[in-house]
Amino acid sequence: MDKTNGGRWDLPHSPLIVALDLGDWDELTGMAGRLRGIVKTVKVGLEAFTVFGPKAVEMLKERGFRVFLDLKVHDIPRTAARAVEAMAEMGVDMATLHCSGGLKMLEAAREARDRALRGGGRAPLLLGVTVLTSMDGDDLEEVGLRGEPREQVMRLARLAGRAGLEGVVASALELKELRRELGRKAVLVVPGIRPAGSERNDQARVGTPAEAVKAGADYLVVGRPVITAEDPALRAREILEEMGSL
Q1: 197: exposed, middle or buried (C-beta count within 10 Å: 0-12, 13-18, 19+)?
Q2: 18, 87, 148, 197: which has the fewest Cβ within 10 Å?
Q3: Is 72 designated active site?
Q4: Comparing 35-44, 77-86, 181-190, which segment has the lowest mean pLDDT?
């Protein structure tokens, strides 16, 4: 796994990614305006992309943001590869694939991305999703997976490495072990981040910004604590300060 691959993705250095999980166009564009100049990368997830499609990515790119398209692609290899090709055409900077789709799917997606790069275009850095931060051991057992979430995270992270992905998405609780296993070049993206004093909402495995950075995270994804704040720009600055990034 390689964080930069020679700088081909031109990722911003700021580790904060704000999740724009909004289904109203005016709210989405308004939030983008409030965060512009403070946040370099924003995440478009399933909700916003289902409602607005590529239009959301285009709007955010026009406003100067790097776009992390978090669709957690999980399908047959050919379909996953075509999805990555479409993301490359949209100018997406980072994208997720669900590692549970298996090695063949992950490799097909990575090969599609590599073809886009060889063609001289831009293409997304690919991240493997391990275990959703909303899931705990009981949830895993319900879907037929026994053991602690950490065990499944490490198993899927190794699969992402075999497929040639640049990194993985995992909770703050697994970061230290992931860094030891995957090495310093792996890109580790941590969702489920809750600043000190914030509510957990539906997240089961969470961490604070400071804890995640100390444990080795490269990027932290923060959604509701920012977009529901009275002053989202101020809240984003506070989180950056907590991470020591300002």
Answers
A1: exposed
A2: 197
A3: yes
A4: 181-190
